[in-house]
Amino acid sequence: MNNEILYSKSFGISGRDFINAGTVSVKIKNILKEIGIKPEVVYRVSICCYEAEMNVVMYADAGNLDFKITKDEIIVSMEDKGPGIENIELAMKEGYSTATQEMREMGFGAGLGLPNIKNNSDEFRIESEILKGTKLYFKINLN
Amino acid sequence: MELSLIADMLDCRNHTDEFLLKKEILYCYASDMMSDVLKSCKIGALLITGLVNQQVIHVAEIMDLKGIIFVSGKEPSAVMIEKANDIKLPLMTTKKQLFEVCGILHVVGLKGGEILQDR
């Protein structure tokens, strides 16, 4: 496997910024589309990024999304400063959500965020520390 | 089915550029939860929703949705309409309720599409 990084970009995400929420993922989608990545991969990556981005906006103070393309895969790592996730096993369960009423009114809190990332990626890791933040890492194969 | 026909059937008010109603619709999806759309909606479907905010537009862009119908008379904001025109995403409002809209579109032959069929 050739791990040479062909493209890399970093995006800052602000917590509670519902005005700009989602724009990072749309930018990533457009970059992938422009460079001719196959549609199936574009959808999977942008769905994962959107869910990860919205988690930062909803729960954390701030986050950073690093996005890399190699010959064989797309690698995303996301790190946020925030409350962390108390029970990762529960958070990974479809339908489980800690979203507030306000978040639900905005169309979130289906309890599908992390499961959607896991299901759309080829490799997925999550680490979280209470009162510090959460780290996400996912890879999507290009072929 | 052309989107303009769907708009007539549902007595929709169109908010975006008229020519966008020429789009051909094969599949529909209905939900107010954005993660549901990301999980189960077919790429390129028409979304029927009661949720009206900027996030619906972002999700539509990610999923290359063909258009959005807002139910129960809910109207998109000027910012949403501007963005939708930019990305050629038709936005419409109907006074009908979600259940009724889905029923009408189902009867005329529109499909939900197989979940995850194209991923």
Give the secondary structure arrangement, pairings included.
The complex is a heterodimer of chains A (143) and B (119).
Chain A: E1 5-14, H1 23-34, H2 39-59, E2 62-70, E3 73-81, H3 88-91, H4 101-105, H5 113-120, E4 123-129, E5 133-141
Antiparallel strand pairs in A: 1-2, 2-3, 3-5, 4-5
Chain B: H1 3-9, E1 13-14, E2 28-30, H2 34-40, E3 46-49, H3 54-62, E4 67-70, H4 78-86, E5 91-93, H5 98-107
Parallel strand pairs in B: 2-3, 3-4, 4-5
Antiparallel strand pairs in B: 1-5
What does this structure look like?
The complex is a heterodimer of chains A (143) and B (119). Chain A is an alpha+beta fold. Chain A has helices at residues 23-34, 39-59, 88-91, 101-105, 113-120, and strands at residues 5-14, 62-70, 73-81, 123-129, 133-141. In chain A, α1 (23-34) runs antiparallel to α2 and α2 runs antiparallel to α5 (113-120). The mean pLDDT of chain A is 95. Chain B has one domain: Udp-n-acetylmuramoylalanyl-d-glutamate--2,6- Diaminopimelate Ligase, Chain: A, domain 1, CATH 3.40.1390. In chain B, 35% of the residues lie in helices and 13% in strands. Chain B is built from five helices and five strands; from the N terminus they run αββαβαβαβα.
